[in-house]
Amino acid sequence: LDPATAHPQILVSPDGRTAGRRESPPAPLPSGAERFESLRCVLGLQGFSGGRHRWAVEVRPGPDWALGVAREFVSRK
Question: Region entry Disordered: which residue ranges (predicted)?
Fold first, then answer.
Protein backbone atom coordinates (compact mmCIF):
# COMPACT_ATOMS: atom_id res chain seq x y z
CA LEU A 1 0.00 0.00 0.00
CA ASP A 2 1.16 3.52 -0.75
CA PRO A 3 1.17 5.68 2.41
CA ALA A 4 1.46 8.84 0.28
CA THR A 5 -2.08 8.18 -1.00
CA ALA A 6 -3.63 7.20 2.35
CA HIS A 7 -6.40 9.32 3.84
CA PRO A 8 -5.15 10.92 7.10
CA GLN A 9 -7.35 8.56 9.17
CA ILE A 10 -5.76 5.46 7.61
CA LEU A 11 -2.49 4.17 9.02
CA VAL A 12 -0.33 2.12 6.65
CA SER A 13 2.24 -0.22 8.20
CA PRO A 14 5.94 0.49 7.56
CA ASP A 15 6.18 -2.53 5.23
CA GLY A 16 3.10 -1.34 3.26
CA ARG A 17 1.30 -4.67 3.68
CA THR A 18 -1.46 -3.66 6.10
CA ALA A 19 -3.69 -0.70 6.79
CA GLY A 20 -6.11 0.21 9.52
CA ARG A 21 -8.04 3.05 11.04
CA ARG A 22 -6.00 5.38 13.23
CA GLU A 23 -7.06 5.20 16.87
CA SER A 24 -6.14 8.81 17.61
CA PRO A 25 -6.19 11.95 15.48
CA PRO A 26 -3.20 11.96 13.15
CA ALA A 27 -0.40 14.47 13.31
CA PRO A 28 -0.63 16.88 10.38
CA LEU A 29 0.35 15.04 7.22
CA PRO A 30 1.71 16.66 4.09
CA SER A 31 -1.05 17.36 1.60
CA GLY A 32 -0.37 16.42 -1.97
CA ALA A 33 -1.97 15.46 -5.24
CA GLU A 34 -1.65 11.77 -4.32
CA ARG A 35 -3.35 11.87 -0.90
CA PHE A 36 -7.07 11.07 -0.54
CA GLU A 37 -8.78 13.81 1.45
CA SER A 38 -12.53 13.16 1.27
CA LEU A 39 -12.78 9.37 0.98
CA ARG A 40 -11.06 7.03 3.45
CA CYS A 41 -9.00 5.23 0.83
CA VAL A 42 -5.46 4.11 0.09
CA LEU A 43 -4.02 2.88 -3.20
CA GLY A 44 -1.58 0.08 -3.84
CA LEU A 45 2.05 1.00 -4.31
CA GLN A 46 2.28 -0.81 -7.63
CA GLY A 47 -0.16 -0.23 -10.49
CA PHE A 48 -1.26 -2.73 -13.12
CA SER A 49 -2.47 -2.23 -16.68
CA GLY A 50 -3.52 -5.80 -17.34
CA GLY A 51 -3.18 -9.42 -16.34
CA ARG A 52 -4.50 -11.34 -13.36
CA HIS A 53 -3.76 -10.29 -9.82
CA ARG A 54 -4.96 -11.46 -6.43
CA TRP A 55 -4.57 -10.52 -2.81
CA ALA A 56 -5.22 -12.21 0.51
CA VAL A 57 -7.38 -9.91 2.62
CA GLU A 58 -8.07 -10.25 6.34
CA VAL A 59 -10.89 -8.10 7.70
CA ARG A 60 -11.35 -7.85 11.44
CA PRO A 61 -14.66 -7.08 13.16
CA GLY A 62 -15.35 -3.38 13.44
CA PRO A 63 -16.35 -0.52 11.20
CA ASP A 64 -17.42 -1.26 7.65
CA TRP A 65 -14.69 -1.92 5.11
CA ALA A 66 -14.76 -2.06 1.34
CA LEU A 67 -12.23 -3.39 -1.12
CA GLY A 68 -12.12 -2.34 -4.73
CA VAL A 69 -10.12 -1.42 -7.77
CA ALA A 70 -9.48 2.15 -8.93
CA ARG A 71 -7.79 3.86 -11.81
CA GLU A 72 -4.55 5.67 -11.03
CA PHE A 73 -6.13 9.03 -11.78
CA VAL A 74 -9.19 8.65 -9.53
CA SER A 75 -10.28 11.93 -7.90
CA ARG A 76 -8.76 12.19 -4.43
CA LYS A 77 -10.01 15.58 -3.28
Answer: 1-33
Instruction: Extract long-range pairs of 43-51: CB within 8 Å, 24+ residues apart.
Output: 43/1, 43/2, 43/5, 43/70, 43/72, 43/74, 44/1, 44/2, 45/1, 45/2, 45/16, 47/72
Q: What is the pLDDT of residue 25?
A: 67
Return the domain boundaries, the chain: 1-77
Distance CA(8)–CA(35), nearest Å, equals: 8
The list of the chain residues with pLDDT below 70 reads 25-26
Give the span between the Cα atoms of 72 and 77, in whole angstroms: 14
What pTM value is reported for the model?
A: 0.76
pLDDT tens for 7-20 read 888 999 999 999 88
How far apart (Å, rounded) are the C-alpha atoms in residues 48 and 77?
23
